[in-house]
Amino acid sequence: METIGKYRWKICALLFFATTINYLDRQVIGLLKPVLEKEFDWSETDYSNIVITFQAAYAISLLGFGGIIDRIGTKLGYSISIVVWSIAAMMHALATGTMSFAFMRGLLGLGEAGNFPAAIKTVAEWFPKNERALATGIFNSGANIGAVAAPIMVPWILGVYGWEMAFIATGAIGFIWLIFWWFYYEVPSKHQSLSKAEFDYIHADMEEKDDNVTPVRWSKLFGFKQTWAFFFGKMFTDPIWWFFLFWLPSYFSERFHLDLKKPSLELIIVYTATTIGSIGGGWLSGYLINKGWPSFKARKWSMFSFAIAVVPIMLARYCDTIWQAVGLISLAAAAHQAWSANIYSIATDMFPKKAVSSVIGIGGMAGSVGGIFFPMIVGSLLDKYKLLGNINDGYNIIFLLCGSAYVLAWVIIYALVPTLETAKIDD
C-alpha cells in the first residue's frame, strides 16, 4: 500500500509564514501608537480615522482580490498581494502626519486583502474536508505569531533605530517569503513533487478535481443564503479582532500603565493564547468529524462553544490588576481565533473551490465594513470618556459589545444555513 505523502503540510507552512508577516506588518502601528500620537499630536479620533482608512481599503480590495485570485490563481495572486503590502509597510517610514499615515495605511490595506482569499483557496485546493479546519487553524495561527513577534521586535527597533526603521525592517520580510513561495508552490494538478496517493487523498471527498474550472462571478454569489451566512458571521466578529490588534496595547498602557517602549510579556501572553485557540479550534471540529459527526454538526457546536467563551470578556470592567485583564482577554482572543478557523472552513464546506476565493473576499469585505464602523464607535467613546476624565468607562462599553458579538453571529449563521448545505452553482 502506497504511503500518503505530507507535501500539503509544507504548503500549509508557507501559508502560516505569509499570515505571520501579514499581521506583523499591520500590528506595528498599534505598538507605536503612544509614540506617534505624541509626535504628531493625534487624538483617539485621529487614530481611529487612520484605522478606518486601512479597513476601508481592505474591504474594497477584498471584494476585488477574491475574484482576481479565482481567475489568475493562487500562485500569482498571492505574489502580487505580498509585494504590494510589503512596499506599503515600508513606505510608512516616509509619513509626516495624519494624512500621510492614513494614505500609507490605505495602501497596506489594498495589498493585505489578498492574504486570506489566497490562503483559504489554497487550503480548499490542497486539503480534504476533514483536515481543512486544522490546516486553516495552523496557518491562521500565523496571525497570532505575528502579533507575538511584534511586541518583541518593534520596541527594540524603536529604542535603537527609531520608529521609521520599525516599519522598514518588518515590511522587508515579505520579500524573503516571496522567494520560497515562487519556487515551492503550485496547484496540486501541476505539482511535480506531489505523489498520486496524496493527490487522490486530497480529492477523495471533492466533486472537483480540475484545478482549472471556470470561476464564478462574485455578483452571482449574493443570490445564495450561504454567502449571507458567511457575510454576517464575519461582519459581527472581525471588528472585535481588529480592536484587539489596534487598541489592546494602548488599553494596557492607559488602564494599567504598561510601558510599550519595552517588550511586553502581557501582550505576548495574550497573542500566544490566540495561537492555541487557532490550532485547537481547528483541531476540535476535525476531531469530531473523524469521530463520525457530520461536518455541519461538528462546525456548529464547535463554533457555539467558542462564541460562549468570548462572553466573559464583559467582566473586564471589574479587573483590578493587569493579569486579571490578561486572563479574560486571552480567553476571548483565543476563542476568536478558534471561531475564525471554523468560519473559514464552513465557507469551503458550503461552496465549490471555484468560488471559494470570491466568497472569502466577500466575507472579508463584510468584516472590514464592520471594522470601519466599530473604530468610529471606539474612537468616539474613548475621546468622550477621556474628556470626562475616565477613559476606562469607554473601554467597559466596548467590552460589552465584544462579548455579545459572537453569539449573535452564531445565531444568524445557523438560522440561514442550519446544515451548511453546499450551494448549487451552475456554470
From TrEMBL:
Q: What is its main location?
A: membrane
Q: Which GO terms describe its molecular function?
A: hexuronate transmembrane transporter activity
- GO CC: one term? plasma membrane
Q: Which reaction does it catalyse?
A: aldehydo-D-galacturonate(out) + H(+)(out) = aldehydo-D-galacturonate(in) + H(+)(in)
Q: Major facilitator superfamily (MFS) profile domain spans which residues? A: 11-421
What Pfam families does this protein's entry cite?
Answer: MFS_1
UniProt keyword annotations, A-Z: Cell inner membrane, Cell membrane, Membrane, Signal, Transmembrane, Transmembrane helix, Transport
Cell compartment(s), UniProt: Cell inner membrane
Task: Report the membrane topology from the UniProt record.
Answer: Multi-pass membrane protein
Any idea what this protein is called? Answer: MFS transporter
Q: Supply the source organism for this entry.
A: Aquirufa antheringensis
Q: What is the lineage of its organism?
A: Bacteria, Pseudomonadati, Bacteroidota, Cytophagia, Cytophagales
